[in-house]
Amino acid sequence: MRFEIRNGSFSYQADKPVLQNISCNLEEGRILAILGPNGVGKTTLLKCILGFLKWQSGNAYYDGKTLAEIGSRVFWQKAAYVPQARVQAFPYTVEETVLLGRSPYLNIFETPRKQDIEIAEKAMENAGVSHLAHAHTNEISGGELQLTLIARALAAQPQLLILDEPETGLDFRNQFLVLHLIEKLSRENHLTVIFNTHYPEHALSISDDALLLKKDGTALFGTTKEILNVPNMEETFGVRLKMIEEQAEDRKITAVIPLGIGGKL
């Protein structure tokens, strides 16, 4: 799915803009990382993209159409959302949770069909949680829960996958598993992916494009290499830093090293 925002603006209070004239475009199969300081509006932007909040001006386009033109039911057959992992209040099994991803294709009170179960099983396999199918989601680890939520999103067979800080709060291994899965889905399945992150190194590792949100509500957009450079990040995050590139096996790894407080916020 091709994705675009044209001059999107939003504010909770009239005199305090959160997002100002945000514009970006993403071709099918590419990964967009959204970064910025805490409280800058990263999750708010995702909510506007998903239609949870209404743009005050401008709009988002999915293959050239707005959400209103597509319709909610069809949109949720084309797009899937993975929120930040939280402790689950209800003791659903992993399989039951993943089957919820088939909801856009089912009528009210309709039970999952054989086809839906097979798709859910494939989604669990892709996310690496098949062995947890009968485990309860309130008893598995944070990393396992995050992968389960990604599997639930994949069960919708989306063309656009949107994730809110998918690697936050996870240990080193699970961060790698989540990032590797996101990259694999994009490269092999041509899935268009948008994700929020606090980690510039993660964005530099897997994303094609980056949207760097600033405190004044504006943003810088371009390829990840163009946007996530030392001057832009020092100014945005108010931290002096150094970037070091290292060739590791078949890919180039970029380390972002903070040196001290400085720059402008």
Task: Give a written overview of the molecule.
With 265 residues, the chain is an alpha/beta fold. It is 34% helix and 29% strand. The chain has ten helices and eleven strands. The chain has helices at residues 42-50, 67-70, 72-78, 94-99, 114-127, 142-154, 172-189, 200-206, 224-227, 230-237; strands at residues 3-13, 16-26, 31-35, 57-62, 79-82, 160-164, 192-196, 209-213, 219-223, 239-248, 251-261. It has a six-stranded mixed sheet, sandwiched between helices. It has a three-stranded antiparallel sheet with strand order 2-1-4, with helices on one face. Helix 5 (114-127) crosses helix 6 (142-154) and helix 6 runs parallel beside helix 7. The two termini are 35 Å apart.
